[in-house]
Every structure is written in C-alpha cells, then in structure tokens.
C-alpha cells in the first residue's frame, strides 16, 4: 500500500483510474461492444475469449441493459441502463486477489480504513451455459464487485481457467463519492465549466426507455426478431466453412452477435411481461443452445486455439 | 513422538463449508496414517476463511515392519506357475521356502516390508487428502488441473519433536510444502516461518489471526453482548449466524450501530431477516420497548479510526436495504388495504403444478374444503372460507418475493393492517403449520380448518395425479403433509370422516382428468378433420356430423342410448379410480399414523386391531380405541382376558368352519349345566349393561374394564365345562355362548389381531 490514496471526484474519474490501473497491469484496454447486452460478460472479449488455450487479458467498460430494472430514473439505485467494468485474465494469475485489491486502492478505497471481505457467491449464467466459483467482494458490508473463476462457458470446460472481475460502476462510484442518489452523482469534474451530474446525462433516457421497455416495445416485432436472430445464428454456423475463394473461415463471431441479440430480445419480452413462467425456461434454453454452438465454433478457430484445444468439451 | 502440523492456505473458503471441512481433513489424514501403520495420541482441526489446519499429537516415528507369507505352487508344478509366482512376489527362487503340505511340498514366499518413516507416510496421506477432498463444490484455477474449493496457495507441513522440526516433503502439482504461512491479509501482510503447532498458533495471533473458530465465536458473542448490555440492550441470539460470521473473519471486531428511526416501524421479523440475510448483522433489541433498535456487525480488522468508517459504510448499506424493505412494506400495505385483490388475481398466473392448475385454482379448492371442515372444528364457515382465500395472498407480496421465509408471517401482518378479522390474520400465519416435527399445531379453529383443508387438498391432488412419495423421494413433502393432518386432527381432537372428505375431492380430480383426456381426443378428431379441409364438401359433412355427435352428447334430451352407455361407463371408471385412490391415500395416512403412534409407544398390532374396526377413517376415534386397548393390555386382567378371548374364539372358529354355520343364535341359560356356566351368563349380562352405555359415550377404557371383569368367569367356564359336548343341544348352546364372548369383547378392537 502506498499511503492514503487521493479520492476521485467524479464518475468518469473512477472509470479512467480503473482503465489506467488495469492497463498498467498488462490488460488490453478494450472498448465496449457495440451491441445491447445484459452484462459485461456477454462481450465476446469475455464469453468467447475465455474459451480455448490462448492467453488473454482484457479490461473494458460495458454499457449494460436490464429492461426489467427500469424505474423511470426515480429509484436511487436502479437503472435499466448502467455500466459494468469488466476484467478478464486467462489463465487466472496466482495474485489476482492482490491485483484486484490494488484496483480498489487506485480508486480511493483505503484498505487500512475499510473492511474488505470475500464472501462466497457462485456465478451461473443459464443463458450462456456458463458457471464459475468465486465471491462477491464486500466493502463495509456493500457488494462492490463480483469475482469469479470460470469453470465452464458455452458448455465447454475452461482450460486454462479465466479470472473474471466485474465492478458495478454506479454503485461502486456512489460509495466512493459518498452520493445517495445515482442521479446526483457528479459525472465529470464538479468544478469544470460545465459540471454534469449522472442525472443530467441519463435521467431523460431512463424515463424514455422505462416507458418503451414496459409499455411500448412492439412484442410481435420483438418475437419475430428473436426468431430471426435464432435462424440467422443457425444459418451462419451451418454454412460451409470454406468460402467462395477457398479460404476456410468459421464465422463464430457473427453468429455470436445473433446470440447476443436473441438474449437481449428475450430480456425485452420479459420486461413487457409476455413471457410466462413456463415459457421462460424454454426461451433461456434456446439462447443457451445458440451460445453453445457459437462456443463450439469459436474453439475451432485460430483465436479459439484450434480444433485440438478443447479436450474437455 | 513427533507432532504433525498441516496448514492448507487458500483464497477465501465459504463460511458454510468450514465446519465440515475441518472434520473431513481430520478424518482423511488420520485414517490414512492409521491405515499405514502409525498411531497417534490426539488430533485437532481448525479453520479460518483462508486456511484449513490439522494438528496430530504424539505420532509414532515410523510404522512397524510388516511380514506377509504367501503360498505358491507345489514343488512339482509346471515351470510357468513358479515363474508367475516369482514375478508376483518379486523374489528369486533361492529366496522361497519349501514346506511340507498335505499334498506334498509347496513353495512359500516370506515377504517382509520394512517399517516406514512417519514423514513418508504423512506426505502420502496429505497428498491423498488434498486430491480426494470431498468439497461440496470444487474448482480449477490458472493452468492447473488440481481441484480445491478456491485456489490453494501454500502447504505448510511439519513434523516436530524436542529436537526440532522438519518439513514433510509433500508435493501436489506445482505446490511443495514449506514451513511458512501468512497472517492477516491487511493487518500483517508477509510470510513467516513456524516450528510447531504452539509456535504457529501464537505467531498467528500476533499476526491478527484467531485460529480457532470456537474462540472467534466466543469473542464475537462476548463483545456483542457486552456492548449491548452497556446500553441496556440485548443481542437476539442466532447460533447459525454466529457460526457463519465466525467463518468470515480472522480477526473479529464487533461494531454496534443504530437503525434509522424511519425503519423502526417495520415488523421486527422484517428488520431481523433483512439484516441477517443481506448484511449478516445481529439484531439488537430494546427489552423495554420490545423493538429491534440497533445492529451488530463484525468487521475483520481494527482501524485507526476505531471502525468509524466501516460502521458508517455498513449503516449506509443497511439504510439502502431497509429503504427497499420499507418500500415493499408500504406498497404491500396499499394492496392489502384494498382487499388484496391484486395479489389474488396475480395468483391465477402462478402455476402450482401443471396437472393441478394455478395457485388460484388450489385456493378455490382449499376454500371450499375449509368451509366443509369449519363445523367440525367449531369455526365459522364464512370466516374459514375467507381466511382460506386470503391465506396465501402474501405469496404475491413484494416482501415475500424478497424474503420467502417471511411467507405467512407477512400475510398475518397485512391481514391485520387491512382490518380483516384476527382469525383470518392468524390463519394466514398458521395455516402452514405444523411445518416440521418440532413445530407446534395451530389451535385457533379457523386456522385449524384452513391448515387441514390445505394439507388434505395437497394430499388428494398429488394422489389424484399419481405423484405419491416413493422410497426416499418425496419432492412435494407429502409425508410431512400427512403427518400434519394427523397432528392437526389428534391435537385438536377433531372428529372427521376422512373417507368422505377425501373421496368427494378425488372424484372431482378424476372427472377433471377424464375431461382433459376427452378434450385431447376431440382435439385429435379436429386435427383429422382439418386435414380433410382440402375437399370442401367432405369437410363440411364431417364437421357437421362431428358437431352433431358432440352436441347430442352434451344435451340429455338428444343423447342416444349408446351415448348414455358411454357416459355410464365413463362415470363408472371415474368413480372406480377415485375409490381406489381414496383408499390408497387413507392407507397411507394409516401408515403414517402407525409411525406416529409407534413413536408414542403404541404397538403396531394394537393399531392394526383398531384399524380393523368400522369408522377407522375417523383418526381421533381410532386413536381413542388404540389408547384404551394399549392401556388395557398393560393390566394383568387385560392380558389374561386376551387369552380367554382367544381360546373362545379359536374353539368357536373351528366349530364354525367344521359345521359351516355361524353360532349367533343367542345362548339360552336354561341349558346351562354347571354353576360356572351360569355364572358366565350372569357376568356377560352384567358386563353388557356397563359396556353398552360406555360404547355409546365412546368411553373405551370403561368398556374394556368391564370386559376385563369377564376374565375370571371365562377362565372358570373353560375349567368346568367341555364346549364340544356329546349332547348336540349343549354343544350348540355353548358355542352360542362363546359367540357372545366374541361379540362383547370385539367391540373396541379386533382382539384377534393382537399378538400374545
């Protein structure tokens, strides 16, 4: 520990510090994936890259959407659109816990004054056919991150194992900055010529999307899109791996995009309340089937470590 | 005599797994040591979130030499047999002994295994324990293939005695044992060496680690109660939470904080559950107000500001959590005060079981049944029905969604706040009970009616769809439901004919299932018709005849004779199925009752004897009989009367079988020859005069006492006369007399079924 860290002053400063920190620890600092996802894990830099034998280290912010969590911008803690900070390192380094604690220090959490604990929390994603063991990390009784050692993704055993860290940025930042309502949190430097709060940036969109998610989204269209995405995913993966010029190109990523789409469309349908309890499992199973096929395809590609890499599937 | 110290140092072990892991480590390692020939004086296992530790004291320094003799082939056996024996023993021919045996000379191999050093055995035992450790869930990490509950970082393994300590050469994949460990993650970073268990425990304490979970628990409880006491408050005991929290910290520091004034109006159970489940806080109660006003949290470190920052953070998280709880409470109250209609509607969309409909369907059935049961338990039928309709409404409340364990309790609070009668509120809370063997039985009449209706509905429903418990599988907890019925009925002395309650329900279920099958058949017919849709003419013809036939089936005036027959058969098959299932369910209840009564010391043959009597579906009556019979059999008169009865019954049964008649014509005293015979007539008359009113009053004990008075006259009778007399008139009269004994003594229970 290098003395008392200087506290950050805004939401964006916390993000920038995490970027700098994980960049300095050897992670490729990636950009968000350009599609709607429910969590940072869906970014192919996590889902697909946690598969196969090739080493990997990446950190990125991922805007995440959970339509059912929308509260019209009124709830102090709940948002239908929020940010996750995601780190994935493969193989998981032996000092991952220490590296993680370093990142807390980097954003101004002094381990000498706070009570930081690793509390059992196993992670499972039925839609991705994935699970892992780990903890939720508590700081003074508050969950600030999810820490997971991936054991299986897309139905494939992870060999080597990836270590995944997920920070819920808004909640973490509210704690560090001492703010009680997310909309009151300073987004940029509060002393800048145009100080903007989180609410200045997002209150309007939260209201609009809450209405659309809950009341307006055209369910017939969403259902049709779901079916389309499912079909397209299947078509892409069923295509001849050899293209017209004789190159062998398996299209795992384009197929996975369709899987992500299907997953988000399912979330939207769920928020509209048109999926019954019994249908729910069936939809989740359909998305999982896509995720598994994408994983199967990815591990045959060069980035996925080639065909021999996946002995454990 | 060396001592062993083993520490397996890892990332944080889930608190709930630690106690079991300590036992497993001790057993795995000591079993392996003993198996390999070592002995030890004592062993102890410890755990903290980051380490699993074993100490074995007074270990033998090496295992004894082992000698084994193996018999080989005969001296004149083929060479191949000898070669094979040499290969398997690893000896040469010169090392074998030739010994005389019954059938000639035979080769013997004497194998001597030298004793092994403790270190070697320990190394194997530890490696075996690590590789075979029975974690409930284990994982791999990095590039390795070793499995542990979380990444395993180091192994400390020492054998120490007066002359010093040596590292045991354990190697498991990339990990090699050493003599160093780490203290508290934040308060004392860095590794240090240790030389023995005592040294280890002492140095850990200096490095802010309390090794023994029991000591951590004591510290936490002591500090928490002391802090609370100083302010005139009490910590609410919670052994499960205490053990969990002790598994989350290496250096427990107890901090007490206040709950915001805003939240003190929430039901205490809500505060307690929210704090325990989400924050692992203890609740602190003010004995004067009875309210929960403060909380205790246990941090894992000391800080320069004496925990101020930590406490502030925890308080903030708690406020956010309780704001949620308060939001749920207030929203729920709004729905409750509006009559809970929103929740009841919502239950239509919640499936109870796909063959038994929604929770709403279930509630409708329970409400009807509760109405029916109400008069049997002196409850108001309208209130019982209302209570049944509302009892499960809280399943849809936000609070129960968040804390399922508050189900029932919230129902009570919401019903009260909404101004429903108190009996309705109590039923919401108590109709789930008894939940287990230790749980008490509700006594408020409305609660009893709803609880009984709930359980009978569950049993009947699952019996109707053939989802009975089998062997160890009982996914719908039907054994517990059956025991619930038994305890509710007996505990409240309810007189109910189970047969009638169950069979009317069962018939409805059966009819519904038949209707479903019928509609499946109709669907199949419709499908066939639609394939004919290409030919318009054929299609419309088919459709018309199909419509005619179904319509005429539904309309009694248009039914043909075939239709009537068909419906008759259908009704017959429904009723038969319902009867079979009802009887099966009743015998399941009887089986559970036997188990229950056996635990109360009533023999199974006593219960069988009472089960053979009419009205055995009235469980209270059944148990009254059983209790009277069991008490009766404990007396000398009782056991002796039983003998006399059996003797009478045997003679009578044999005669009846032989003669092909039943001797139930009544005996006439004028044919009595001896005094003993006449005395028996008198005794039977006297007993009957007592027994008849006693039976009317269901005073089975009095009835049986009167029966016991027959013991002496019956014995005297058998002494004095021969039943199968030469004179056929005398014989017939005596057999008729025996029949009277059988009839009188068989009124409480079928004594032929009693053993002895």
TrEMBL record, chain A:
One of its GO terms (cellular component) is cytosol. Keywords: Aminoacyl-tRNA synthetase, ATP-binding, Cytoplasm, Ligase, Nucleotide-binding, Protein biosynthesis. It is an enzyme of class 6 (ligase). It is found in: Cytoplasm. InterPro entries: aa-tRNA-synth_II/BPL/LPL, Gly-tRNA-synth_heterodimer, Gly-tRNA_ligase_asu. Transmembrane segments: none annotated. Its EC number is 6.1.1.14. It comes from the Bacteria. It catalyses: tRNA(Gly) + glycine + ATP = glycyl-tRNA(Gly) + AMP + diphosphate. It holds the Pfam family tRNA-synt_2e. One of its GO terms (biological process) is glycyl-tRNA aminoacylation. GO terms for molecular function: ATP binding; glycine-tRNA ligase activity. Tetramer of two alpha and two beta subunits. Belongs to the class-II aminoacyl-tRNA synthetase family. This is Glycine--tRNA ligase alpha subunit. It comes from Cereibacter changlensis JA139. The lineage of its organism: Bacteria, Pseudomonadati, Pseudomonadota, Alphaproteobacteria, Rhodobacterales. The gene is glyQ.
Automatic annotation (TrEMBL), chain B:
The gene is glyS. Tetramer of two alpha and two beta subunits. It is found in: Cytoplasm. Its EC number is 6.1.1.14. It catalyses: tRNA(Gly) + glycine + ATP = glycyl-tRNA(Gly) + AMP + diphosphate. GO terms for molecular function: arginine-tRNA ligase activity; ATP binding; glycine-tRNA ligase activity. GO terms for biological process: arginyl-tRNA aminoacylation; glycyl-tRNA aminoacylation. The keyword Cell cycle does not apply. It comes from the Bacteria. Keywords: Aminoacyl-tRNA synthetase, ATP-binding, Cytoplasm, Ligase, Nucleotide-binding, Protein biosynthesis. The keyword Aminoacyl-tRNA synthetase applies. GO terms for cellular component: cytosol. Belongs to the class-II aminoacyl-tRNA synthetase family. Residues 644-746 form the DALR anticodon binding domain. Pfam families: DALR_1, tRNA_synt_2f. The lineage of its organism: Bacteria, Pseudomonadati, Pseudomonadota, Alphaproteobacteria, Rhodobacterales. Coiled coil: none annotated. This is Glycine--tRNA ligase beta subunit.
